[in-house]
Amino acid sequence: MWLTPSESEALRLSLDVATRSVACSLPLAIALAWVLTRYRFVGRTLLDALVHLPLVLPPVVVGYGLLVLFGARGVIGSWLEKAFGIDLVFTRNGAALATAVMSFPLMVRAIRISLENVDRGLEEAARTLGAGGLDRFTTITLPLMLPGILAGTITAFSAALGEFGAVITFVSNIPGETRTLPLALYTALQQPGGEHAAARLACLSLALGLGGLLLSEWLARRLRRLLGR
Amino acid sequence: MLTVAAAKRRGTFALNVRFELPTPGVVALFGRSGCGKSTAVNIIAGLLQPDSGRVVLDDTVLVDLQQGVDVPPERRRIGYVFQDTRLFPHLSVAANLRYAQKRAVGAPYVDLAAVTSLLDLAALMNRRTHQLSGGERQRVAIGRALLTQPRLLLLDEPLAALDEARREEVLPYLETLRDQLAIPMVYVTHDFAEVLRLATHIVLMEAGSVTAQGTVGEMSLNPRLRSIIGPDEVGAIIDGVVLGVDSSSNLTRVRVGQGELNVQARGLAVGTALRVQLLARDIIVSTRIPQHLSVRNSLAGIVTGIHGDDDDSDLITIDIGAEEIMARVTKAATRDLSLRPGMEAWALVKSVSLRGHAFAARPK
Q: In CA terms, which of B72, B175, B213, B356 is 20 to 30 Å from B169?
């Protein structure tokens, strides 16, 4: 392998953080997409805006917000510490939380679009065939949303691999714990003679991002063919 | 027996329907597009809640808002065949059918093998739904609805999206369903040809209301039908019985009322119920026994009524014994022949349209 131990550590850490981030945010994203698509309620627009906020805010602001809320003295952070012993600051779980918040809007968007495209008539048909609410969701709605869920997951995963600002602000830059690929790249650039390492890490990021997008496109096409669209 | 009485307001459209269907039988909800037929069917299925009303199927109350009863559609055991089929695109034909089969409740009366042979689905089983033709899709959709073991089958314009040839391809299957399973059906259509082929009863709908209802025979004489199907299509529809083949002419003898018609048809067994349509414009009225005419079919009867049809013509109803037929004559002819109720008349039938075999209803 042409990566140095610290670089491959950064790669592994990035993949680990992105996996945790996506695994935790996916169920929430599906639930939120469902609520935003299927229900009309007071504050829906506000909720929608809140979800999308990370797209338009400077990542540093998101990281700062996380520090305030989830930091050792933050409202939620101190409670998590006391109740479950979960420490988010300076840990990879904290990094996962930061990337999850940042990539959440991408995921919700993709899932929401696919849910909007699900023909309600098919759910009605399932109803007349005897399928109750949960049954309909798992056998009809969810499978038909699958292209969007996959696309959303892969996009969010790719974005999570590359999240920088929110991560470094919230959990700092600790080798082996929070120094993901972009942070490692940044660190390399700060050191004299780190240009080679930086270039390699940049190429790696590029390959991962491109690979993710191509995989997502390929899967979407396969699924579309399977559904005959 | 299906009893429906429901009101529903949607924007400026108000639906207010009330009808009954003796089961088994096929009731055609007939009317122009947008008159509320589909809304009525969705209320029966439970996909739409009425503002007020009752829906009762046999002994089961499905909706009675005053009593707080509203059985959800998934527990109504009512099959629904949609115009756009609504097959599940992510499942194969076989999986679509199994989807219904797995969720069926109550005593099964038709199994997968029976549905497969009834609708000729064997060759389609492994296909994906987008690989099917329109007619095939509709057959699968019908099969899927049947496999829920429904107590009632709703069909919402199942043939409307198909071209003429495909329609002819699906219609015989619907007839088979009606005759072999004797499952009560509510059939929504704006095409009178489909009504003629399948229905035993007609519920006529106009602008959200039921304006007339009765058996196909009764309704064929109803003046309200004329405004929808047009004056040229007006005429008695009679479910006759095949008596045999006339050896000299090779024509099939069909009993209608107390009379007899000779029609060109082959291969019909004696006793077959045959639906014939006698268009009012194809009937000539005579007040004497007709002689020396090329027209072979004549039915003797008594004039029962004279109804103005338009400015120039009248519709004469004639009782031919147990059935009534209708003839269109000019007002001048009515006057010259001094036609009036109670007088003897002979109806000369220029042509007889065969409308498939009739459903020999066996009331439960």
A: B213
